[in-house]
């Protein structure tokens, strides 16, 4: 994934024509499009290949199973045309390792969820977040997912993983996080969904976030 605008669109719309229209509109303003269960369940896995014409595709399936099942899932998703898959880290080293090995063979990326951005992540996940970040670094994953709603945690996670791994951060906009604060905390890319795809003018919404990011770099 090229680091140009440092913005990733989270495309959680349900209709494939709408997904294509928005992707076309934001071309050039985003470095990647993140596709997850809502769009894929509503419109089929082949949407990944269609959207890959507009940007790199990160498949957010938060893969969280035993190693063999994780490998089967990642194979399907890479075969469909995704450039990267998001996997959960809490399932442990072997479940992660099989995904990272497969991605390396295929020249693709794995991003590992450390701690999520919603309030409930404080119940259980935050305690494991730093351990998961360390594991992602040990396994040489491409990067981690860390919360834009808690820039101080992005800073902590950056200290643990160093500069070899990337950080991608959801939680900007609808969840209350700020693109500028998250970039200043050390994230490489912010992930923005509703603020862009629910806007009357998604291209302008994306452009505004990109200028906010540029202003603090
Ligand atoms: O809140 P938004 O509409 O900007 O969308 C954020 C996206 O990022 C959405 O797809 C959600 O499933 C994903 N995500 C988080 O919000 C928080 C995480 O910790 C991980 C993924």
From TrEMBL:
Question: Per its UniProt record, what Gene3D superfamilies does this chain match?
Answer: Aldolase class I
If you read the UniProt record, what top EC class would you report for this enzyme, in one word? lyase
Entry EC no(s)? 4.1.1.23
Q: In which pathway does it act?
A: Pyrimidine metabolism; UMP biosynthesis via de novo pathway; UMP from orotate: step 2/2
Per UniProt, substrate binds at 12, 34, 60-69, 117, 170-180, 193-194
Q: For this chain's UniProt record, which GO biological process terms are given?
A: 'de novo' pyrimidine nucleobase biosynthetic process; 'de novo' UMP biosynthetic process
GO molecular function list: orotidine-5'-phosphate decarboxylase activity
Keywords per UniProt: Decarboxylase, Lyase, Pyrimidine biosynthesis
- Reactions catalysed: orotidine 5'-phosphate + H(+) = UMP + CO2
Q: Which residues form the active site?
A: 60, 62, 65
Domain (Orotidine 5'-phosphate decarboxylase) spans 6-209
What Pfam families is this protein classified in? OMPdecase
In terms of InterPro entries, this protein maps to: Aldolase_TIM, OMPdecase, OMPdecase_arc, OMPdecase_AS, OMPdeCOase_dom, RibuloseP-bd_barrel
Assigned GO CC terms: cytosol
Q: Which NCBIfam families match?
A: PRK13813.1 (NF010386), pyrF (TIGR01740)
What function does this protein fulfil? Catalyzes the decarboxylation of orotidine 5'-monophosphate (OMP) to uridine 5'-monophosphate (UMP).
Q: Which protein family is named in the record? A: Belongs to the OMP decarboxylase family. Type 1 subfamily.
- PANTHER family named in the record: OROTIDINE 5'-PHOSPHATE DECARBOXYLASE (PTHR32119:SF2)
UniProt subunit comment? Homodimer.
Name of this protein: Orotidine 5'-phosphate decarboxylase
| Species of the source | Methanolobus zinderi
